[in-house]
Specification:
The strands form four sheets. Strands 1, 2, 5, 6 and 7 form a five-stranded antiparallel sheet that branches. A three-stranded antiparallel sheet has the order 8-9-10. It starts with a strand and ends with a helix. The chain is an alpha+beta fold. Among the domains are: 71 residues, no CATH class; 291 residues, no CATH class. Helix content is 56%, strand content 9%. Helix 11 packs antiparallel against helix 12. Strand 11 and strand 12 form a beta hairpin. The chain is globular.
């Protein structure tokens, strides 16, 4: 309808507002009418000194002032004032000021001292830098883990079921005829009961974890009987990414520990092993300020607390990138052993995060001197992932659906490429969608049901911009090689694969926008992009620049905890 004006009536007042038109792809999908894409609207009404009515009635008017429709009285809810919004901005600006002052000092030191080799690859202080960097991530996530109830990471139920199956020696999912051939695993009934107690928290922002539920959950033990549970979404992941969780669950089952203790041990094992991988990576390649900012995001730390695959995939990816960058800094041919190690790590990463597939070219890029053995070693990851993907697609059974397959969608989009351009354009020019990407990159916690205050997202935007600017400013661009540019290209290609894969695997063909994209999916491409920046310089070979990065990381880690803990406590415990 030709809505032009909204009239608000309440408490004896009448106000007229011009609404802002917004895109509503959900309306298009629900009503199957593409012309309704811009049917949404929103408005803001400042109430400086005004009397706030208890109820409001909305009258929708056309351009001539004729009434199109009228709403019933709407109750007005008063939200408490969010205190501290200014403090968040002041903190971010203060950190920016400190980093700017440090940049000026570093610039002065570089002009007054003769150039020396970067400290990134020296032995001095590298153990301390690695321990501090990895320790901050692990310690901060450990604090959050004490607050976050079980199974609050998306799809964590399925991940724990897959880990349990691996703990019993089941490498791959199985199908059950009584469940329409659905792929899944046979899971201990005690573990399923433990999951059932925590399932009501998912997708229910108002649900709280009652004290009675916590007591009941802690009393559940292993029962020794098993029930089939479908988990087809995990069938595409290499089982190696579940090894720490599986080991912890196996120990808990064998020793007779409760389900709760076993689950929390699985959480701890996944986070600890991932942190050890970070430590090993940072021993070889000093993390930049941008890398530390990404690792200390509220979203990253929250995912580090779960028993899923996020933390391990991050740790493995960072170690693979570190081995690559260490080799590039040496400027020598990569040994066959290193090529195989990097290839194996990337197989693990891509085996659970397929959008990182462009990184499979890294072993070939490392093979400067092409011999038969080097080329074979560099190509092995591509062959391994191709074989695993084909096997997983052939053996994993999803519920039957009338939706087009990914292959059918590829053919359809190839036949009408304008449709692909239209969907991509609508997605990335719809403000509410782009805003969600940004917020869920910083942190929309839980099952995407626990948002942080808006001021925190703005502050994190400033912190990330500061970290990126510092990383670029202190990089030793004299060391830049074509492989740094290649790394950036691979990272950007990985980022582009995120919406493309979700378009093909998840989004209905008739949808006007791409569904299912979350900001956290872009974390690994962002880390790969940050690693493509040349190593940071230090003109006098001292520890000034690493000290600035360490100070920034400490401040950011504390900030993440300070802003995240109250939100999580209020979300889960009221």
């Amino acid at each position: 309808m030709p809505l032009a004006t909204i009239e608000l009536v309440g408490a004896g007042q009448v106000r007229r507002l011009s609404p802002e038109i917004v895109r509503r792809p959900d309306v298009v999908t629900a009503m199957d009418r593409p012309e309704l894409l811009e049917s949404g609207w929103r408005f803001r009404m400042p109430l400086h000194g005004a009397v706030v009515p208890d109820t409001l009635t909305l009258r929708f008017l056309d351009a001539s002032g004729e009434e199109l429709a009228r709403s019933p009285p709407i109750a007005v809810e008063r939200e408490p004032v969010v205190h501290g919004a200014v403090r968040h901005r002041l903190f971010a600006v203060g950190v920016m000021g400190l980093v700017l002052a440090a940049a000026l000092v570093a610039w002065g030191r570089s002009r007054s001292a003769a150039p020396r080799p970067s400290a990134s690859h020296g032995a001095d202080g590298r153990v301390g830098v690695a321990a501090l960097s990895a320790g901050l991530v692990f310690s901060a996530s450990l604090v959050l883990s004490a607050v976050v109830p079980p199974f609050q990471s998306p799809d964590e139920f399925d991940h724990v079921e897959r880990a349990y199956a691996l703990s019993k020696g089941q490498l791959l999912l199985v199908s059950d005829a009584d469940h329409e051939g659905l792929s899944g695993a046979w899971v201990d009934d005690g573990l399923l009961a433990y999951m059932t107690l925590h399932a009501p928290l998912a997708f229910e922002p108002e649900a709280k974890l009652a004290a009675e539920a916590r007591v009941a959950a802690s009393a559940i033990g292993w029962r020794g009987t098993e029930t089939f549970s479908g988990a087809p979404g995990t069938g595409y992941y290499l089982p190696v990414v579940y090894l720490p969780q599986a080991a912890a669950l196996a120990v808990g089952r064998i020793t007779g520990a409760s389900i709760d203790a076993s689950y929390r041990a699985a959480r701890l094992a996944a986070g600890f092993v991932a942190s050890l991988l970070l430590f090993a990576a940072f021993l070889r390649w000093r993390p930049s300020m941008a890398v530390m900012a990404l690792l200390l995001l509220p979203m990253t730390l929250f995912q580090w607390t779960g028993a899923g695959i996020d933390a391990l995939s991050i740790g493995v990816a960072v170690l693979a990138l570190a081995l690559w960058r260490e080799q590039e800094a040496r400027g020598t041919d990569a040994s066959l052993r290193r090529l195989l190690a990097v290839g194996a790590l990337l197989v693990v990463v891509v085996g659970c995060r397929f959008h990182m597939a462009p990184l499979l070219l890294v072993p070939l890029l490392m093979a400067r001197r092409f011999t038969v053995r080097r080329v074979v070693a560099g190509a092995l990851p591509l062959v391994a992932i191709a074989a695993w993907t084909l096997w997983a697609l052939a053996t994993t059974q999803h519920p039957s659906t009338a939706e087009m397959s990914a292959g059918d969608k590829v053919v359809a989009y190839a036949a009408t490429p304008s449709r692909l351009v239209e969907v991509a354009w609508t997605t990335f020019t719809t403000p509410i969608i782009v805003e969600f990407y940004g917020r869920s990159f910083v942190g929309v916690l839980g099952w995407l049901d626990t948002a942080l205050p808006s001021a925190i997202y703005a502050a994190w935007g400033l912190l990330l911009a500061t970290a990126a600017a510092w990383t670029l400013a202190v990089a030793d661009w004299r060391q830049a090689r074509w492989t740094h540019a290649a790394g950036a290209v691979l990272a950007l290609c990985s980022a582009l694969l995120v919406p493309l894969l979700l378009l093909l695997m998840w989004t209905p063909f008739e949808s006007p926008t791409i569904d299912g994209v979350q900001g956290r999916y872009f974390l690994l491409p962002a880390l790969a992009l940050a690693s493509a920046v040349p190593s940071q310089r230090d003109g006098d070979g001292g520890r000034f620049i690493p000290g600035v990065v360490a100070g920034f990381a400490l401040l950011v880690a504390l900030y993440s905890l300070v802003v995240t803990l109250p939100v999580l406590v209020a979300r889960y415990y009221g």
